[in-house]
Recover the amino acids of this structure.
């Protein structure tokens, strides 16, 4: 429960507790806190047992720690039925992002061979007013 508390922090907590509660009341406070923690643990264990009994025998191996998303994902990723490790190892995000950044920041504008040269758009020029018979450009990604 308190695995991440170091010795210096523990000494600091004890000194603050002695200063706040005093040396005469401190043992009673520690007893009250430990009694409360025991009651909470007993209540938690009884609630877990009630839930397991209500779920039935098909959930006999159910663990409440599996409800934590990190634990659930860790268990699912260890069971590599879908080949996720191969996908993860074959995908280099840094390389993909560097390639994408280079493509975006490159000074040359590539035109597709399927687009006629009369319809080539200069991306550096601001669009002006349209002629009365001219339609505005259609952007499929924007709609």
């Amino acid at each position: 429960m308190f695995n991440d508390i170091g010795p210096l922090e523990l000494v600091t907590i004890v000194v603050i507790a002695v200063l706040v509660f005093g040396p005469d009341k401190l043992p009673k406070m520690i007893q009250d806190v430990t009694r409360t923690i025991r009651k909470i643990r007993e209540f938690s264990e009884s609630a877990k047992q009630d839930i397991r009994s209500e779920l039935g025998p098909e959930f006999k191996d159910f663990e409440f720690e599996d409800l934590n998303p990190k634990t659930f994902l860790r268990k699912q990723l260890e069971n590599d039925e879908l080949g996720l490790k191969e996908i993860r190892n074959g995908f280099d995000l840094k390389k993909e992002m560097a390639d994408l950044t280079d493509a975006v920041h490159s000074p040359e504008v590539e035109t597709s061979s399927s687009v006629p040269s009369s319809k080539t758009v200069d991306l550096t020029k601001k669009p002006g007013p349209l002629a009365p018979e001219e339609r505005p450009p259609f952007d499929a990604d924007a709609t």
Observations:
- The first helix runs from residue 7 to 55.
- Confidence is low (pLDDT under 50) at residues 111-115.
- The chain has two domains: 1-62, 65-104.
